[in-house]
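Let us walk through a complete example step by step. Step one is to write down the protein sequence. Step two is to encode the small molecule, adenosine-5'-triphosphate, as a SMILES string so that its atoms and bonds are unambiguous. Step three, shown after the inputs, is the structure prediction itself.
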Amino acid sequence: MNKAAEAPGTVRAPATPAVHAAGLTVVRGPRTVLRDLDFSVPRGQITGLLGPSGCGKSTLMRSVVGTQAKVTGTLTVLDRPAGHPTLRARVGYVTQDPSVYLDLTVRQNLDYFAAVLLPGRAAADRRRADVERVLTEVDLTSHADALAGNLSGGQLSRVSLAVALLGAPELLVLDEPTVGLDPVLRRDLWDLFHSLAGHGTTLLISSHVMDEAERCHRLLLMREGRLLADDSPDALRARTGTDTVEAAFLHLVDTANATRTN
Ligand SMILES: Nc1ncnc2c1ncn2[C@@H]1O[C@H](COP(=O)(O)OP(=O)(O)OP(=O)(O)O)[C@@H](O)[C@H]1O
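Step three: the predicted structure of the complex.
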């Protein structure tokens, strides 16, 4: 055994997960929309949150970023309770509806949000560099001076993503970021997600398109507010004896239904 590896100061504690939930439950109106969920989101990987419309994906993401009311159980994000004020700059969030100012250009939008994140004259150079970086990352440099209101839906959602990338957050929470995008843009965005993960960013990405699941390192499969699986795509396929994540999901749904009726 390598003794040097045991010397004080050289042994590293295993990294805690980026997100850890235990008994996570959320009530919205009269309904319990998340029921007693236990899961972890490992750091530096892409975790896909998949399930049919209405199963609770957005509610789970809102809980992680701290904007959801009536959350019970334990929910830890980057070693802090979800919603903790120190997480604001460390967590990027993109909702399903692009949240940008339509009467500003792309660059003006980014300058504005960069100033909120990094205020003060002393940070002007950092802000400028950050805006150029995110414009390049989402491939919108050539549209930087276009009015947001004149962009296509796909371009607008990339502006929203660029806003979330400002400040290089450690955790990115993206609610259906590829909806309505053509296949080339979808592929380019997934390449960007992998590049971000390669540099250590943790990504939690929701989708109801099962083929996107194949591009994730880990999957949380949801149905009706419950988790059907928390596994890697390979392990899921192997465990269910199926060839695709979609077939694995359907297999798990059928098993859950059979257990309920028995
Ligand atoms: N204010 C509310 N009161 C009661 N139920 C609500 C409320 N808001 C949402 N819901 C219900 O909570 C459930 C989960 O909604 P959520 O938006 O999290 O689902 P989702 O999986 O993200 O769906 P989609 O993929 O269509 O966005 C849905 O069944 C929805 O009808």
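Step four is interpretation. The chain is about 35% helix and 25% strand.
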